[in-house]
Amino acid sequence: MKILVPVKRVIDFNVKVRVKTDGSGVDLANVKMSMNPFDEIAVEEAVRLKEGGKATEVIVVTIGPAKAEEQLRTAMAIGADRGILVKTDAPTDLGGVEPLAVAKMLKALVEKEKPDLVIMGKQSIDDDSNQTGQMLAALLGWPQGTFASKLDIESGSLKVTREVDGGLETLSLKTPAVITTDLRLNEPRYAKLPDIMKAKKKPMETIEPSALGVDIAPRLTIVKVVEPAKRKGGIKVKTVDELIDKLKNEAKVL
């Protein structure tokens, strides 16, 4: 079984995001960038499947600037076998290439690499679109298991436990399929120094979006970016009657 894992370069989740003074985007100057946390979970799951003898090769792919090679090397240090960088200079401060264009490029790569399974994060923490996995499955005509919190593979059949509003739902899928990962699927490992050194020697392919026959021109226009309103401090009331009065007459929630 061959597994393809798309990953994305995003602002590290520990960094406080700051909006540019002109409201045109997010300030990326001297900001630490990392692999999207949900994608890191996808890489870990794919590597575990390989270590368990259920997969033979794990390929990681990212769409972004030349610096995104760093995230591919991180994935290869975790255990992926090789990487593919679809190099583009599209602005990354507002999420980079739009989900539909990403899905189209991934479809072209799937047709080229012919994986049996695509495992990817359910969403990226920069634009929070939660669209690419579903779009890719639709374009390929493959079954999909989204928000996976557990994944079992037996003789070409997948059992995906996914988190839904009412609890847990279990799906039975046949490969090839697209799986998107939730936080509780696993806990990614820390890459060891020897693995980081080995990752530098693993094969890396760089291609252009035009080679995949996909137009990445944006379909949406960002008018303005603003920071969330700052939370106001609460107040204390002395009696229940006063609380009810404020909820009814000031907050107007009663």
Tell me the layout of helices and strands.
Layout: E1 2-7, E2 9-11, E3 33-35, H1 37-51, E4 57-64, H2 69-78, E5 82-87, H3 99-113, E6 117-121, H4 132-140, E7 144-154, E8 157-164, E9 167-174, E10 177-181, H5 193-199, E11 204-207, H6 240-249
Parallel strand pairs: 1-4, 1-6, 4-5, 5-11, 6-10, 7-10
Antiparallel strand pairs: 2-3, 7-8, 8-9
Describe what this molecule looks like in 3D.
This protein has 254 residues and is of the alpha/beta class. 26% of the residues lie in helices and 26% in strands. It has 6 helices and 11 strands. It has a 9-stranded mixed β-sheet, sandwiched between helices. The chain has a two-stranded antiparallel ribbon with strand order 2-3. A hairpin with a 2-residue loop joins strand 7 and strand 8. Helix 2 (69-78) packs across helix 5 and helix 3 (99-113) crosses helix 4. The radius of gyration is 21 Å and the shape is globular. The protein starts with a strand and ends in a 5-residue tail after the last helix. The relative contact order is 0.18. The model has no long low-confidence stretch (mean pLDDT 91).
Briefly summarize what is shown.
This protein is an alpha/beta fold and 254 residues long.
Question: Based on CA inertia axes, which overall geometry fits?
Answer: globular
List the total number of helices: 6
Which H/E pattern describes the elements? EEEHEHEHEHEEEEHEH
Relative helix content: 25-40%
Strand content: 25-35%
Largest sheet: 9 strands, mixed
How many beta-strand elements? 11
